[in-house]
Amino acid sequence: MKVALIQSKVSADRAGNLRRAAASVRAARAAGAELAVFSELHTARYFCQVEDPAAFDGAEPIPGPYTQALSELARTNGMVLVGSLFEHCAPGLAYNTAVVFERDGKLAGRYRKMHVPDDPGYYEKFYFAPGDLGFTPIDTSAGRLGVLVCWDQWYPEAARLMTLAGAEILIYPTAIGWDPRDAAGEKIRQREAWTTIQRAHAVANGVPVLSVNRVGREPDPAGGAGIAFWGHSFAAGCQGELLAEAGDKAEALLIVELERGRTESVRRIWPFLRDRRVDAYAGLTQRYGPPPRTKPHHECTNHSSPLPHSRTPALLPPSTLHPPPSTSHLSPSRKRRGIALLAALLLTTLVGTVALAAVTHAGVNLRWGRAMRTQTELRATLRAVVSGTLSVSNATLTGTSRLSPGGTTVTLQAARVDVAVLPAALRPDTPSGGNMALWRIKAQAQRESSSAALQAIVQRPRQGGAARVLAWVER
């Protein structure tokens, strides 16, 4: 598919700017282009060099004169067009908006600039509210277009979100230039940074990038130095390669051939999207600094510096059922034995919990009640757990009292219960009577695919797990 990048000089003559835009579209169509992109706010001089309330008179609604002209231009030339305007939304409320028209002249969609600068010579926050339409691609006959605007080009998050929403091309209508008073070296660094960041978007996302800037010097209405727009509109391929680039002095019409399907082939050899650690990116929602987090169970609580390459295994967290006694007065060997006993006790609890979670995850419909649903069902499920017929994969201890086997979350709660409340089949044959202390494991399981929780309660003694409960039932 051929696309056209229209780099233009902008004068104070709005009608003249539109006539030159129409001529460029006709030339692009004659060259076989299916898509043409204009620079940012290309029908008028860049008015944001100063803060002037009178400049709001240049804003217009959608539909309005500009969008009607662009619609007709798209229809008569049978092309998809990406334009830009100062959109009037309500009294005192305006946006910097990109619009996309289909080849039949219908409005395919719009995008409101999300990142709004406020720099010397670029006082856009005075005029434009931050965009409220999000990062949503626009579907057209030329593909799904990820249209962003100028200042958005410095933010990899914007490019990524557009790509994740299915954008096939990233497009940046732009108005950026130098302060003429800047040193030559500074000018080069700024322009190369601008090119580099956008080519990086192409590499990171495996999609082509079209960046269309204006060119020429425009005076400051307040008498300042003005802006020398640096041009250099360019197209980059899916690996960041430059496909075409304009100069910094004159208007230009770049016709670029984009290979449909190249994104697929590039992502197969550079699988950057596939290999992202989306589970570790919660910090991206922070303005600055890491997000609050719960200390992982394997993190050592001893803050002294460990020896390099230590092979000492991390200890399980203290059990909520049996908090360890104080060991400050114990010798190191007794401490180690105590830790070993504690680990064994936790392992026993974990095995019983995994067995219970396996039953829940396998789809056994356990319900709340005075006892298990039926003794027959209890026998069958416990036999399956003990025999190994029911297995649990990917079981990980995610907290001192939480277990997540295969997407099911189980919460353990400790409580003393009276033997008298147990069904007869579950009462241990002991002479201790009705006040024997037992431990209750309460399992609340909820699958990610269901809004209703599958809940269960199993009464068992302090030690023994599923096999011990099964022995009682069999008796």
What does this structure look like?
α6 (332-361) crosses α7 and α7 (375-387) crosses α8. By secondary structure, the protein is of the alpha+beta class. The model is unreliable at 300-330, 362-375, 390-423 and 425-464 (pLDDT under 50). It has helices at residues 14-30, 65-77, 156-164, 184-205, 262-269, 332-361, 375-387, 465-474, and strands spanning 2-7, 35-37, 80-90, 93-101, 107-112, 118-119, 122-123, 138-140, 143-147, 169-173, 177-178, 209-212, 215-218, 227-230, 234-236, 242-245, 252-257, 395-399, 402-405, 410-411, 416-417, 438-445, 454-460. The radius of gyration is 34 Å and the shape is elongated. The longest helix is centred in the last third of the chain and has 30 residues, at 332-361. The protein folds into two domains: 2-285, 4-Layer Sandwich (Nitrilase/N-carbamoyl-D-aminoacid amidohydrolase), CATH 3.60.110; 332-474, no CATH class.
Topology:
Blueprint: E1 2-7, H1 14-30, E2 35-37, H2 65-77, E3 80-90, E4 93-101, E5 107-112, E6 118-119, E7 122-123, E8 138-140, E9 143-147, H3 156-164, E10 169-173, E11 177-178, H4 184-205, E12 209-212, E13 215-218, E14 227-230, E15 234-236, E16 242-245, E17 252-257, H5 262-269, H6 332-361, H7 375-387, E18 395-399, E19 402-405, E20 410-411, E21 416-417, E22 438-445, E23 454-460, H8 465-474
Parallel strand pairs: 1-2, 2-3, 9-10, 10-12
Antiparallel strand pairs: 1-17, 3-4, 4-5, 6-7, 8-9, 11-14, 12-15, 13-14, 15-16, 18-19, 19-20, 21-22, 22-23
Helix pairs in contact: 1-2, 3-4, 6-7, 7-8
| CATH superfamily descriptor of the largest domain | Carbon-nitrogen hydrolase
Tell me the number of helical segments per DSSP (H or I, 4 or more residues long). 8
CATH class assignment of the largest domain = Alpha Beta
Given helix and strand content, the structural type is alpha+beta
CATH topology of the largest domain, by name, is Nitrilase/N-carbamoyl-D-aminoacid amidohydrolase
Large-scale geometry:
elongated
Number of strands: 23
* Beta strand %: 15-25%
User: Which consecutive residue ranges, at least 5 long each, have pLDDT under 50?
Assistant: 300-330, 362-375, 390-423, 425-464
Q: Main sheet?
A: 6 strands, mixed
CATH architecture of the largest domain: 4-Layer Sandwich
Provide the residue-averaged pLDDT: 77
Order of strands, main sheet, comes to 5-4-3-2-1-17
The tally of structural domains comes to 2
What's the gyration radius in Å? 34 Å
Q: Helicity range of the residues?
A: 25-40%
